[in-house]
């Protein structure tokens, strides 16, 4: 018998998210009779100001995942944040509490940390984070917890951020973990890749791409050709999704 308490709606908030991992993952999960009665759908909005209307028109929602570009923009619409989401400054999971409040969490950092940790060797001492958006904030928080110093890279240099033009052989000597937190290389623009001197990757490097479609981005392929250990974002997504599921059910 299906537990009536499990008859709930969930979804993904984002823009241009027809490719979404989350919908396929949770739909498959809910096809298991243990989770029968649950449903998961995409909520594709063109700008964050439509979020309030979305919530008003879907009063039976119990939880949302949040993806690009709304991980930071959604925060002002929430009633409260978990301690870690507040520290990170980005939200990728929203729980609709029993009192009708919206509480934001970040499970990205958890998924990234759990997927990176098995790859780490003593020589992996410092990381470069490509990108400064919401996803990069969760990555930075995870690196803090792993005691791995990091530097952000963006198209324009700012305080505590370097630009791509500054990356050279010495950079690769000093940073052994390179993490792509940008959407560059996502399907359908699979030939694109971050502007790096890929010839300086070695077998001492980890190249990690939060992108999962395609499974091997141009960034990962070029790094692998130089001997680097590569990892895409698929396992991170599974870990963060299961963490979100626990949050929705606690």
UniProtKB/TrEMBL annotation:
Which keywords fit this entry according to its UniProt record? Amino-acid biosynthesis, Aromatic amino acid biosynthesis, Oxidoreductase
Pathway of action: Metabolic intermediate biosynthesis; chorismate biosynthesis; chorismate from D-erythrose 4-phosphate and phosphoenolpyruvate: step 4/7
| Record has Transcription as a keyword | no
Q: Which InterPro entries match?
A: Aminoacid_DH-like_N_sf, NAD(P)-bd_dom_sf, Shikimate_DH-bd_N, Shikimate_DH_fam
Q: Which residues form the Shikimate dehydrogenase substrate binding N-terminal domain?
A: 12-94
List the residue ranges forming a coiled coil, or say none. none
Indicate yes or no for the key word Transcription: no
Pfam families, per database record: Shikimate_dh_N
This chain belongs to which protein, by name? Answer: Shikimate dehydrogenase
The organism of origin for this protein: Flavobacterium anhuiense
